Amino acid sequence: MTSRKEIGSLTLALYYIAIILTLITSATSCVSEKKLAKMCAEKFPPRDSTVIRERVITDTINVPGDTIQVECPPVFIKDTTTGAIIKVPVTKKTQCPPKQIIYKTIVRDSLIYRENTAMVQHQKNIIALRDKTIEDQTKSLSFYRKWFWILLVIVAGYVGIRYVLPRYIPSR
To answer: Whole-angstrom Cα distance, residue 55 to residue 104?
Structure first.
């Protein structure tokens, strides 16, 4: 019989072995995953496409004109009571026409599209496989079409020889 001490040391050894195996498998799985990622990146490098969009935004603002006073030449008026000539200064208020201020804003956007070349290649493979399937099906259909016409000619010949031809050949 084994003692409790031996069972405990055996269990401890099995735990250590399980821990070591877990560490080894996790380390190797990370390495293989990194290698796989590197191979994938080498075989299918990403392609960048840059699109530059440019738009011009035009804003027009109408600013009302200023009111200015214009001095005109003086007017001379004769006073009816005294008969003296009086010089009267004349000022006239005038509204200036409104001003148009045009603001042009140029907006430039750069869009970078990163193409997933692995997915593009996968889609091309799927399309090629479907094209091959369609081609095989059309070959199969052409085979059946050919046999259909052959059988149709045979049946038409049989009907012609068996039923139509005896009507035109006199019997003895």
So the answer is: 10
Residue 45, Cβ neighbours under 10 Å: how many? 11
- Say what the pTM is: 0.35
Contact status, residue 77 vs residue 90, Cβ threshold 8 Å:
no
In the numeric block, the tokens 């997915």 are attached to: 119
- For 23-60, write each residue's pLDDT tens digit: 777 666 555 667 767 777 777 777 778 888 899 988 88
The three-state (H, E, C) secondary structure of the chain, written as one string = CCCHHHHHHHHHHHHHHHHHHHHHHHHHHHHHHHHHHHHHHHHCCCEEEEEEEEEEEEEEEEECCCEEEEEEEEEEEECCCCCCEEEEEEEEEEECCCEEEEEEEEEEEEEEEEECHHHHHHHHHHHHHHHHHHHHHHHHHHHHHHHHHHHHHHHHHHHHHHHHHHHHCCCC
Closest of 100, 92, 88 to residue 67, by C-alpha: 92
Tokens 């079409």 correspond to what residue? 145
Spatial CA neighbour of 130 closest among 43, 116, 122: 122
Give mean pLDDT, residues 55-68: 84
